[in-house]
């Protein structure tokens, strides 16, 4: 039986859900690596490293591993280079995934309140949403550094629900990664994941979201 949802508010993740931002992130990571005199990683590696914020991305690039901790001096040298490169190139090669523009329109047409909850730093989130022409859909935008904790903490989701005056049971989280599922579960939100995003190279079905969709437009078929 198809799962049915009846949300008053839908919170949507950014990287890997609304936007394929890896081309710009990988370009900036590789520009940083080159500037540090180190070999570039390429898009395929960077794709598995996105989703826990830009600091963690830079640490992953420096160590070549998901949980690696570089020497503080290496990080302090690399991080500002990455920030400067990404600020200059954010949005250039990034695109909305197919079905996103239509999916947002369908949600808005139902009168559902929309928020964007991302681990991306605020300095990059707002220009990216604006450049892709979708910023106006979101009544709230919560970035990775907007609050003391980011996903997988439930805090950003709880904060958005509170701002909209919506009970967590009347909310829905839509994301692409295990962090979105963990944050939603901890906040008491139902959660739907997209099949196409970034989940550190793992199948998102293994995280056991309530449903998996192949495009944001497909969500409309699951709403009561
Ligand atoms: O890792 C990031 O910077 C952003 O990730 P998110 O939009 O998928 O939360
Ligand atoms: Mg994501």
TrEMBL record:
The active site is at 13 (nucleophile). Belongs to the HAD-like hydrolase superfamily. CbbY/CbbZ/Gph/YieH family. Keywords: Carbohydrate metabolism, Hydrolase, Magnesium, Metal-binding. Specifically catalyzes the dephosphorylation of 2-phosphoglycolate. Is involved in the dissimilation of the intracellular 2-phosphoglycolate formed during the DNA repair of 3'-phosphoglycolate ends, a major class of DNA lesions induced by oxidative stress. Pfam families: HAD_2. It catalyses: 2-phosphoglycolate + H2O = glycolate + phosphate. Signal peptide: none annotated. Its EC number is 3.1.3.18. Pathway: Organic acid metabolism; glycolate biosynthesis; glycolate from 2-phosphoglycolate: step 1/1. The keyword Metal-binding applies. It is an enzyme of class 3 (hydrolase). Mg(2+) binds at residues 13, 15, 176. PANTHER family: PHOSPHOGLYCOLATE PHOSPHATASE. Its cofactor is Mg(2+). This is Phosphoglycolate phosphatase. InterPro entries: HAD-like_hydrolase_sf, HAD-like_sf, HAD-SF_hydro_IA, HAD_2, HAD_sf, PGP-like_dom2, PGPase_prok. It comes from the Bacteria.
